[in-house]
Design brief:
- The protein is α+β, with helices and mostly antiparallel strands.
- It folds into two domains: about 5-55, no CATH class; about 65-145, no CATH class.
- About 35% of the residues lie in helices and about 30% in strands.
- The chain contains five helices and seven strands; from the N terminus they run H-H-H-E-E-H-E-E-E-H-E-E.
- The strands form two sheets. A five-stranded antiparallel beta sheet has the order 3-1-2-6-7. Strands 4-5 form a two-stranded antiparallel sheet.
- Helix 1 (about 5-15) packs across helix 2 and helix 2 crosses helix 3.
- The longest helix is centred in the first third of the chain and has 12 residues, at about 15-30.
- The protein is elongated.
- The mean pLDDT is about 90.
Length: about 150
C-alpha cells in the first residue's frame, strides 16, 4: 500500500509538477490526508481553478529544465538542458554557431555512459549549476559510440 505522502515525496523528487501541485491542492482543500492510500486519488480531483493558479505561480518552486537532443550532423548529437526546445536551439547556436537539424525532448530517465559511470539525465541535471547548459555530445563512429 503506497501512501499519498510517499507519492507526494516522489512527485517532488522527480519534479512531477502537476502531480505534486494536485496533491498539495487536495491537501489544502481537506479532501485527502498524507497517510491515506494513494488509490484515493483516482476518485477525487482538486478544484481546477485553484490548481491552475498554483501551477501558474509554480507555488512549489519547480525549476522545469528538460533535456533536449539536437542533431548537428549525420552522426552527431548535442544534449542541452533548457526550459524549451527553442531555448535549447538558441543555446546551441550561441555556443557553437550551429543550427540543429532537429531537436527532440528526451526522457530524463534516459541512461548515458559518461566518464567512467552510467547515469540518467535526471542525475546529470543535479550536477549542473547554470541553465540552459550543454552537457554532452554523442558521436557515432563505425563500430564505436561515444558520449563526451
Amino acid at each position: 500500500m503506497a501512501t499519498i505522502k510517499a507519492l507526494y515525496e516522489d512527485a517532488i523528487k522527480y519534479e512531477e509538477s502537476l502531480l505534486a501541485h494536485s496533491i498539495f491542492c487536495l491537501i489544502q482543500e481537506g479532501k485527502i490526508e498524507l497517510e491515506q492510500d494513494d488509490a484515493v486519488l483516482l476518485q477525487i480531483n482538486p478544484d481546477p481553478e485553484k490548481l491552475e493558479k498554483l501551477l501558474e505561480m509554480n507555488y512549489l518552486g519547480f525549476h522545469q529544465m528538460n533535456i533536449f537532443s539536437l542533431k548537428t550532423g549525420r552522426q552527431k548529437w548535442v544534449f542541452i538542458f533548457a526550459q524549451t526546445a527553442e531555448d535549447a536551439q538558441q543555446h546551441l547556436h550561441m555556443k557553437t554557431g550551429q543550427n540543429p537539424l532537429n531537436c527532440l525532448e528526451l526522457s530524463p530517465d534516459e541512461v548515458v555512459f559518461t566518464g567512467n559511470r552510467f547515469l540518467n539525465f535526471r542525475e546529470l541535471k543535479k550536477e549542473q549549476t547554470q541553465f540552459p547548459c550543454l552537457v554532452g555530445v554523442y558521436e557515432k563512429y563505425p563500430g564505436n559510440k561515444a558520449f563526451v
